[in-house]
Amino acid sequence: MLAAFRRAAGGLLRAPAPPPASHVRSYAESRTALRKLAKKRELDEVMSRTKAVFKTYKPVTPGIRHLRRPLNVHLWQGRPVLQLTVAKRKKGGRNARGRITVRHRGGGHRQRIRIVDFKREEPGVHFVVRIEYDPGRSAHIALLKNRDPNAQGTKKWSYIIAPEGLRAGDEVQSFRQGIPDGFVSGLDVSKLNGKAGALEADGAVDEVVAGSAEAIQRELEQSSSQSLALGLLRTLTLKPGNVLPLRLIPIGTVVHNIALVASGPGVLVRSAGSAGQVVGHEESKYTHVQLQSGEVRKILQDCCATIGRVSNPLWKNRNLGKAGRARWLGRRPSVRGVAMNANDHPHGGGRGKSKSNKHPVSIWGWGARGTRTRKPGPKGPKNSNKMVVRERPRGKAKRSN
């Protein structure tokens, strides 16, 4: 009886028969197909990310529920070049006497100031090594390396404001010192560089200022060969990141980092996503440039500008998500005037939420909410700013744009 029980138990504990080979093959094929489908779905999500230009997060904490950052996968993740930075000593918005002159500043993470080259005086081809984040500005910066083997120090490595579309591996060049000889075959660069003798030697019929944009344009368009050379020159020079004098930039070109002095650094149009546009050249020594605000301004034609629009245009649409990130950036809280006492703000005081019947003003009593406190441009006192051709639009004109 025991032997019979053992025989029965052995039959039950025996391993089941393996499935047919066709079933195993179909199961393996289905797993492979599912894996390929998942990879294809993931690839499609990555490639179809045209609308998702911001990085958002799953709201596992309140601080990241509304956090939104622009997607910049091309940014360098490491540290900057130490030789191109200096320590930032924070003052907390206080002057030498210890009094607060700029409110809402203090604290923040430790930062280093990036030394950005706004002049671009070094000629020759420079390679773009990488695009980096700069905590001191809204735009990105690009690390350049001079191709000249004899260059050393800051002449070999430098930071510039990165224009939109500039990536690692690109080449940029500065033509601040003029177009080099032999840059384009068949083109007389002496006319482009503003040498007076060249225009007179070729028999210029118009008595204009040597080197002006209109004179250069007429001189070069006299022959078809010169026109072809001019077109080739514009193709080689009008690239994002290149620096050119305004007299060599054609009308309609988008520029940034515009200088106001011929030998000075760029001071206009440097924030993220901003751009200016060349709208005209005068017979004299001025070029009309429309700035980001809509103001049209006269700038000397010997001043230089960089081709292209400033990078990081989505910076203004970011959302920090919580107050702590503002503190990390060195921004202290801002208190409303109606929440203060009467001796702290013109809006302060009163019982409860009282607004009174006064016009809104700043903490110093200046008119706010549209009240004009200065008259720049041609309408100013005694024509204070003669370089402004058209003021920036305000009020209804600004809303219509």
Automatic annotation (TrEMBL):
Keywords, in A-Z order: Mitochondrion, Ribonucleoprotein, Ribosomal protein
Region ranges (Disordered): 338-401
Entry GO terms, CC: mitochondrial large ribosomal subunit
Database matches in InterPro entries: NA-bd_OB-fold, Rib_uL2_dom2, Ribosomal_uL2, Ribosomal_uL2_bac/org-type, Ribosomal_uL2_C, Ribosomal_uL2_CS, Ribosomal_uL2_dom3, Ribosomal_uL2_RNA-bd_dom
Annotated family: Belongs to the universal ribosomal protein uL2 family.
Function: Component of the mitochondrial ribosome (mitoribosome), a dedicated translation machinery responsible for the synthesis of mitochondrial genome-encoded proteins, including at least some of the essential transmembrane subunits of the mitochondrial respiratory chain. The mitoribosomes are attached to the mitochondrial inner membrane and translation products are cotranslationally integrated into the membrane.
Protein's recorded name: Large ribosomal subunit protein uL2m
Organism of derivation: Mycena pura
